[in-house]
Amino acid sequence: xxxxxxxxxxxxxxxxxxxxxxxxxxxxxxxxxxxxxxxxxxxxxxxxxxxxxxxxxxxxxxxxxxxxxxxxxxxxxxxxxxxxxxxxxxxxxxxxxxxxxxxxxxxxxxxxxxxxxxxxxxxxxxxxxxxxxxxxxxxxxxxxxxxxxxxxxxxxxxxxxxxxxxxxxxxxxxxxxxxxxxxxxxxxxxxxxxxxxxxxxxxxxxxxxxxxxxxxxxxxxxxxxxxxxxxxxxxxxxxxxxxxxxxxxxxxxxxxxxxxxxxxxxxxxxxxxxxxxxxxxxxxxxxxxxxxxxxxxxxxxxxxxxxxxxxxxxxxxxxxxxxxxxxxxxxxxxxxxxxxxxxxxxxxxxxxxxxxxxxxxxxxxxxxxxxxxxxxxxxxxxxxxxxxxxxxxxxxxxxxxxxxxxxxxxxxxxxxxxxxxxxxxxxxxxxxxxxxxxxxxxxxxxxxxxxxxxxxxxxxxxxxxxxxxxxxxxxxxxxxxxxxxxxx
Length: 488
Prior knowledge:
Layout: E1 14-18, H1 28-35, E2 40-46, H2 58-77, E3 83-86, H3 89-100, E4 104-108, H4 113-128, E5 132-136, H5 158-166, H6 207-212, H7 217-230, H8 235-238, H9 251-255, H10 261-267, H11 277-299, H12 321-328, H13 335-347, H14 352-365, H15 370-380, H16 388-397, H17 412-419, H18 424-429, H19 449-454, H20 470-485
Parallel strand pairs: 1-2, 1-4, 2-3, 4-5
Helix pairs in contact: 3-4, 5-11, 11-16, 13-14, 14-16, 15-16
C-alpha cells in the first residue's frame, strides 16, 4: 500500500512492532514506548514469508485473524489504533517512519532464524538513519545464544539444559499492561484485516476451531486460570491421558505471544496455589522443553528441513502418497492414531501423548519422512511453532538432538490401552467405533464377528482395515535403521 506523507506533530512518535507478541501485559516494548510519554503507533507487519520465514499454515492464519481483532480492541480501550501492514518488515517500517516522522522503533525479539535476520537488518537500517531501535525479551525465558555448556557450546541433551535453566535463578517478573497509550493525533492508513483473507471460506473448515478456542490475551489468561484450578494438581500423571482435560492447552497462546513464559512461570509460584511439588516441576519442565526447542533452532537454522543427526541423511524413507493421505485423514485402522489425527483436523490441536504416537506411526510404521508429517502439522496446528514443531518431530523420528532412539517404536494398541483404557478419547473422535466394548476399542480386528455386527462396525467399510501390521512394520523399520547404520 502506498504511504502518503502527512503533517505529523513536532513530537515524533514511537513505533511499536507487534509480531508473535499479541498482548498488552508483559510487553516490554509497548511498556517502554508508553513510558516515553510520546505518541505511540502500534503496528502489526504481516510479512507472510516475505522475510524468508515460513508462511503460517491455515490453522494459524485463522487464529491470527481473531487474535488481531482482539488486540485491536484492547489497544482501542487505551486510546491507540492498531495499524496493519503487509509486506517485508524493513520496507514497511521505513515507509511508516517516513510517513509519521517517527524517530524510534521498539519491538520484542524473535528467535527463528529468519526473524533474527530480518530484525538485525531493521536495527542496522534504523541506526544508520540515526533513529532509535530497541528490542526486548518476552518470548523466551532465556536468550538462546547465552545459555551454553561448560565448554562454551550449545546443549544437545535436554536434561543438562534443564538443570542449567533451572539453576539460573528465577526469571524476571512480568510487567503490567500500560493503563493508557498516547495516540497519534492524525490517522495513519491501515490495511483492512479482511483484505488479508486469513479465514477459510470455501469450504469453511474452522467450525471445530471456533468451538474449541478463544484466541486473544483474555482467552490465554482464562486458559491459564482454568489449568491452575483444575489441571495442575494431577498434571504429572494426568498429562498422558488424552481423554482428561489435564494439560494446559496454552501452546497456541504461547505461539502467538498472547501470554509469556514469564507470566506462566510466576503464576506457578503463587503462594495460594495448592499443587504438589512433582506436578509443578513436571509442568515447568514442559515449559523448558519449549525453551530447549528454541535453543536447538538457534543453533540449527534448518531444523525443519535437515536432520540434526546427519546419519539420517542416508535413511531409506519410502514415500507413498496413499499411506501419507490415510494418516492425514485418520484412516489408518489404528484407533488411537486415527483419533489423534481427527482431533487435529477438528480442533487444530492434538494431545501431546497422541502426537508422539501418531508421529512414531508415520515415521516408523509407514516409513514416511518426518518432514512430511512436520509439514502437515505446520498447516493444521493452531500452535504450530518454528522450533517446537520440527524439534519434536526429529525427536520422535530419531534424527534430532537428544532424540528418542530409533528402535523405540510405539505400539499403538498398547499405547491406547495404557493411556485411554476405556476408549473415551477414541469414542469421541472415531464415533464409528463408539459402540465397541472397551476390550476391543483399540484393536477392532480382534473383535468377534457378532461383536462387530452388534456395534455396527464393518471393517473395510465403516472403519478401515489396519493399513500395516504392527510386528511386520516394526521389523521393516528396524531393518531400514540397520541399513542406514551400515552406510556409515
